[in-house]
Design brief:
Blueprint: H1 2-14, H2 34-48, E1 55-60, E2 63-65, E3 69-71, E4 74-77, E5 80-90, H3 102-120, E6 124-132, H4 135-141, E7 147-153
Parallel strand pairs: 1-7, 5-6
Antiparallel strand pairs: 2-3, 4-5, 5-7
Helix pairs in contact: 2-4
Length: 155
């Protein structure tokens, strides 16, 4: 996952976009609470650098088939194998867990999905965009109006 994050950062920098790549491992020693720790890290960066426009929260996509088989969805781009990915966006706002930016996040993720499908359709898993209402996801997205989670898996 860190290698993917670094590749994304380098691609953005190559396009003249300033990017920060945080390599904090949020699911160690426990997976439980990883989303909250990731959200806290994003919130700290947004506070320190209020000019940040976009947050991409990159996660390993743990796809299981049965109880023991890990599926690693890949696609072929040109002659190279590439990891497939999906975007996940939280869209529920409640009194106890407000999410003031859910509509902007959904719009951002939809635009990102459309742009990726135009240029890299084969690396998107179906469904392309997952709209999520889990509390652990909601916590993560309330900090910014342009945040999405990328789930990436491959060999």
């Amino acid at each position: 996952v860190c290698a993917v994050g670094e590749a994304v950062r380098l691609a953005l920098v190559a396009e003249g976009i300033t990017a920060i790549h945080d390599t904090t491992v949020h699911d160690s020693p426990l997976y439980s609470g990883a989303y909250n720790r990731s959200a806290d890290t994003a919130a700290a960066y947004l506070k320190k650098y209020p000019s940040i426009k976009v947050v991409l929260d990159i996660h390993r996509d743990a796809v299981m088939q049965g109880d023991t088989d890990i599926v690693k969805p890949t696609a072929t781009v040109g002659e190279k194998k590439a990891a497939q990915m999906m975007l996940i966006t939280g869209v529920v706002s409640t009194a106890d867990l407000p999410h003031p930016h859910w509509e902007q996040n959904l719009t951002f993720s939809t635009h990102l999905q459309q742009a990726l499908c135009k240029t890299h359709q084969q690396v998107h898993k179906l469904p392309h965009l997952i709209v999520h209402s889990l509390r652990q996801i909601q916590y993560q997205y309330r900090h910014s109006s342009q945040i999405t989670q990328l789930e990436i898996q491959g060999d």
